[in-house]
Amino acid sequence: MTPENLTPASCDLHCDTFPRVSPKKRIAVIPGDGIGKEVIPQAVRVLEAVGADLAFSHFDWGADRYLADKTTVPADGFAMLARDFDAILMGAFGDPRVPSNVHAKEILLGMRFQMDLYANVRPVRLMDASLCPLKGVEPNGVDFVVIRENTEGVYGDLGGVFKQGTPDEIAIQEDINTRKGVERITRYAFEYCAANKKGDGSPRRRALLCDKSNAMTHAGGLWQRVFKEVGGEYPQIEKQHMYVDALCMQMVRDPREFDVIVTNNMFGDIITDLAAGMQGGLGMAASGNLHPGKTSMFEPVHGSAPLIAGKNMANPLGAILTAAMMLSHLGMTARAEKIETAVLEAVRLHKTTADIGGTLGTREAGEWVAKSVAHR
Ligand code: NAD
Ligand code: IPM
Ligand code: MN
Hints:
Bound molecules: nicotinamide-adenine-dinucleotide, 3-isopropylmalic acid, manganese (II) ion
């Protein structure tokens, strides 16, 4: 049910069994902007209620800080996070008062790149049939994972503009695909497939490469070759391929057929918003930004949602499921499962925000899950 930890965790299940003898895991909490500041406190409250042995440190990185003193990431901020913390729990960045959203780029993309968090793991699981806009899809029917390359592609922002402001203007946005980058994310996907089970306990069996190698032949060719080569080391895993456009169509027609999808940075971004639609919308989607053995970052898939920010309307469940994913990564799988079970119950009982059919506010929905895990 919980995406398993692929890192050699320094703390295993004993953390859950004997919390007092294990050192506290140090968590950096960075809520960010907009609804990030509303949903992350609810995730922290649930982590506290579940009794996880964590020490939280809060950081004010985001638009307010940037507008106040022009700081995006304080000096040595990423080195400090890597050195002093076991994991990072982050909200979202983006604020209409910062039209360029330069702070979002420097904090979020800066963290992914500079901390080399190359695997963006985005599980897609339908908790209750009522959450899926498609007909006839059962819970457990949708249960796949997108493994998104997180440090390359068009996100590197290499390129430039030429003759800006003239009719001859040229804009170039390079797509970076390194052998090393493609190989490590592909291997991560096969390892993930080999090591993890679906929510119903059945093994994961299939790895699918999603690309656009019919049009983007150079990059696509590298991905194809690497997928074939690395896949050869995993004879037990079925290999599949789909062009990203066909995959989008298929995800809407029948999302049940997907298992583990590996793809580049941009396609991964796009298909995971589409996939979030299959599980109840962006308010339900969790993610981890990982590098095995290094301090990793966990964030809901959604953004800062400025239109609903500050109104106690945002769904906190994606952030709460993200917190569960972080616990699982830290080896506290029993507590992670408690949180997931409580979220499932909240969904079934409609103790949720309006986006998924409930009547509660952000704080009240968080409180419901917190109380539920405290009684388990
Ligand atoms: P968004 O995810 O913020 O919102 C998209 C839609 O989903 C909106 O209708 C919003 O109201 C809804 N939504 C999102 N999260 C929700 C939740 N928890 N509960 C209920 N409804 C929710 O995406 P956007 O509107 O494209 O972007 C807004 C800002 O967020 C932009 O500045 C964008 O760059 C930024 N952004 C940041 C991140 C991040 O920091 N990880 C991710 C995506 C977007
Ligand atoms: C996400 C977001 C980011 C991305 C943006 C805010 C740069 O959409 O995490 O999905 O594209 O990676
Ligand atoms: Mn996105």
